[in-house]
Amino acid sequence: MDLYNNQKSTSKIKRDASVNDRIPDGLFLACPYCGVQMYNKQLGAFRVCDHCGYGFRLQARERVELLTDSFEEMDSEIEMMNPDFPGYADKLARAKSQTELGESVLTGVAKIEGEKVALGIMDSYFMMGSLGSMTGEKITRLFEYATENFLPVVLFTASGGARMQEGINSLMQMAKVSAVVAAHQEAGLLYLVVLTDPTTGGVTASFAMQGDITLAEPHALIGFAGARVIESTIHEKLPKDFQRAETLMTNGFVDQIVPRSELNQVIAKIVKLHHVTEV
Amino acid sequence: MVNIGLNLFKHELTPAEVVKKSREDRFLAREIIDGIFTDFVELHGDRLSGDDMSVIGGIAALNGTPVTVIAIDKGIDIHDKLSKRNGSPEPWGYRKAQRLMQQANKFHRPIITFINTPGAFPGKTAEAQGQGEAIATSILESMKLTVPMIAIIYGEGGSGGALALATSDQVWMFQNATYSILSPEGFASILWKDSKRADEAAAVMGLTPKDLLAKKVIEYVIPESRSHTRVFNLMRKRLDDEFKQLNALSPQDLIKQRRARFRAF
After folding, report:
1. Which of A144, A149, A84 is nearest to B263 (CA)?
2. Taking Cα atoms as reference points, which of B100, B102, B125 lies closest to residue B114?
3. Are both A35 and A96 inside the same structural domain?
4. Same structural domain for residues A49 and A73?
5. Nearest by CB: B181 against A162, A180, A226
6. pLDDT per residue as tens digits for the range B44-97
7. Global pTM value
8. Are A132 and A50 within one domain?
9. What ipTM did this prediction achieve?
10. What is the residue range of A47's domain?
């Protein structure tokens, strides 16, 4: 029995306590969707799980690199006037330095495979992509610019929903952006939405679901209410893929699920098919 | 000593008290409809998937003028409340509202919405049928209406579920109603991980009519009275006056003004 219960044997090999400190963070990752462990480099430039095709969350600037031939940023200087909610100013400052963005969305004029578009990319690393009044302002200005210059709008959504710190002003952004979506629509211009992980709450309940054409990335979480809120309301567990892009497509809310590496070609193709022909 | 007595009756309610009051069944949707309008004809269904009982809709006369009325109702007794999920509409409730708005547009009828909802229903079917899309489309379509629309929050104005029917030319609130991004409980649980701090949250959220009037989120606060008839008479008069002014605008100007109202935020 002693052979198997030998307390001493474990202590013979000394564990180097500092070993964890010497392994860089994020060297090995687990796919948030399928859970398969993989080496960082395995993800490749597009940062896609080679097991299930899930696209890891990207920062807006990373996406610009992957997607566009050229990009000219708009309204980079835009700032929240007086964030008076306790602790909000600090949170904003931290988000700004982490993402190198002024707000939770990056906007500008881009060329994608040669096609000129007004491009907006929301960044889930900036306060969970929440919809602040300046987020709404930047998207609104993007649509106004696009309407004036007869450009299609391509918007990548990623958001946890409303920005609580801004209260009712955050809610009003849903209507504010919808107003310029309406004007852009009436001008006969294309509004293309790409739903990325995660798109939820007030963004889903407004401009994310107002596109002429709606694409999504594989396995992206898309929904209105949070899964936990739903489960505690109906007292049952939700199926695994309940709020994923594939389910939304089955239910009729998504036109196509496009792998990240093909997004630029698909977007360019759709934009091209909407070129205004002279009558 | 005398002052204490006076303060008891004259003191302004705290935000937390307003929240509690807004959740009491002080006014019922049908009572409001019958109190303000005549000849109400109820219309059912969204023509796509069903009829949501929590959204009462129809046509009626306001001082003799035809109008479209859409009201979120919490229900009266327990069965009624359960079938209406305490005033939380399903996607087909919002689509019913959209259908009635389009109809109002066709027949040039002003639209009045009455709102009392903790929020859109967070259910499994609701999610599968596109609760987000239903609200998004309600907001977008409201932006295109060429008829005037006034929204009145008479209890809770919960988040996107309320905004779906409040993308209007004017928004009014009852004296003891609230309008907010989320319930104070939800707000406290998200920001401070403690839903018990709801009263504290109510105080910082700015959800009372007074706060919202100052922010120009709403245009008018309807004073409440124990005599509901008095409240309804006042509202009938004011609705009539406001619609007369809004009707004087061309459809283009009306849309421009409505969009500018929200562009300001």
Report:
1. A144
2. B100
3. no
4. no
5. A162
6. 999 999 999 999 999 999 999 999 999 999 998 899 999 999 999 999 999 999
7. 0.92
8. no
9. 0.94
10. 10-56
